[in-house]
Inverse folding.
């Protein structure tokens, strides 16, 4: 089940069963602990920040609820989708590597080569290939072969290299010529693409770590004002009366929480925007 088939995205709501299905396409169902973490962390973050800024219970409760909703409706589906996309990409790359190696044996047909590599393929892609193998094995005519391979290519339309590889398989089946050079060329480029995607996501995770460090520093600065108040008066009265429960503090805290939420929302939208990973390559004629 692919993300563009999910009602979760189509109806702008979250269905846990659909996310479980997506997560288990190449692994296991979502664990309760992971769901709690992805939903709870934004809730705790906004709750704690609103607490140390305002000390107003209904503001804290409101921010906590907003954080939980954001984690559940935005972060959770995005994390599951990215994991699925990466596992799917890795499975396709492994399939290309294995099939290209097997097709070096000119005594094997494409169908026989598929039979060798299917058991080495994982998850959803394995099911797709088994269906393809079964359909090809019943004496399909050339047009039907092209149709079946094109359908598989369309399912993974965001992977242009994979689609071009399937086109080469179609050509080999139709013409009966084993063009291993083209298959090797596309496989090498698919592996390079996977490396680029891994590097791209690694850099994104480094940026996320930087944002987390910045948030910790911001929290520490706010707590420093608490410490100054306590050091000067033996309690937090100066901070509470002079800022947290003062009109200036109300306005400043509202601006701070609103701005922080907008900045983090913008960051996470860019963090989960993986459209740049939809890379392709032109095949040599």
């Amino acid at each position: 089940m692919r993300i563009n088939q999910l009602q979760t995205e189509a109806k702008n709501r979250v269905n846990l069963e659909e996310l479980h299905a997506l997560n288990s396409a190449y692994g296991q169902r979502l664990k309760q602990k992971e769901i709690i973490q992805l939903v709870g962390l934004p809730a705790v973050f906004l709750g704690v920040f609103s607490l140390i800024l305002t000390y107003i219970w209904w503001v804290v409760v409101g921010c906590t609820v907003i954080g939980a909703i954001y984690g559940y409706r935005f972060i959770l589906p995005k994390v599951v989708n990215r994991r699925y996309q990466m596992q799917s990409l890795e499975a396709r790359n492994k399939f290309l590597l294995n099939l290209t190696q097997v097709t070096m044996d000119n005594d094997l047909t494409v169908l026989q080569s598929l039979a060798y590599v299917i058991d080495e393929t994982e998850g959803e892609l394995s099911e797709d290939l088994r269906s393809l193998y079964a359909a090809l094995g019943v004496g399909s005519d050339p047009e039907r072969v092209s149709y079946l391979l094109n359908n598989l290519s369309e399912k993974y339309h965001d992977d242009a290299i994979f689609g071009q590889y399937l086109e080469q398989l179609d050509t080999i089946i139709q013409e009966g010529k084993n063009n291993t050079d083209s298959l090797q060329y596309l496989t090498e480029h698919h592996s390079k693409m996977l490396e680029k995607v891994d590097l791209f996501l690694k850099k994104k995770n480094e940026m996320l770590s930087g944002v987390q460090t910045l948030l910790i520093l911001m929290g520490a600065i706010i707590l420093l004002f608490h410490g100054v108040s306590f050091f000067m008066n033996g309690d937090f009265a100066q901070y509470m009366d002079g800022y947290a429960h003062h009109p200036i503090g109300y306005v400043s805290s509202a601006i701070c929480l609103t701005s922080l939420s907008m900045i983090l929302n913008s960051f996470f939208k860019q963090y989960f925007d993986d459209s740049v990973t939809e890379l392709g390559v032109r095949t040599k004629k």
Summary: The chain has eleven helices and no strands.
